[in-house]
């Protein structure tokens, strides 16, 4: 959806906050919060696909994401509790 904004194929979109935080996307979008009564927070679920081509790297990412440091990174971006 950010792609459509970047190339002026759309004027507005509803997307995950995380999509607006990447260096590739942030110059093109302004993220506006949606009140939780309209869009409840969802639990972030991470998993490894059975057909991954790099199991070691995928596992390292999951290990980092669930570590205190990784949880702090998610939280600092508004993506954790």
Molecular structure report:
With 81 residues, the protein is mainly α. It has two domains: 36 residues, no CATH class; 39 residues, no CATH class. It is built from four helices and no strands. It starts with a helix and ends in a 5-residue tail after the last helix. The model has no long low-confidence stretch (mean pLDDT 86).
Q: Helices and strands, in N-to-C order?
A: HHHH
- What is the share of helical residues? 25-40%
What is the number of independent domains?
Answer: 2
Q: Count of DSSP helices?
A: 4
Annotation, overall tally of beta strands: 0
Average of per-residue pLDDT values: 86
Low-pLDDT residue spans: none
Q: State which percent range the strand residues make up.
A: under 5%
Note the main sheet: none
Oligomeric nature of the chains: single chain
Inertia-based shape: globular
Radius of gyration: 15 Å
Topology:
Elements: H1 2-6, H2 17-20, H3 55-65, H4 68-76
Essential attributes:
81 residues, mainly alpha, 4 helices, 36% helix
Concise structural overview:
It is built from four helices and no strands.
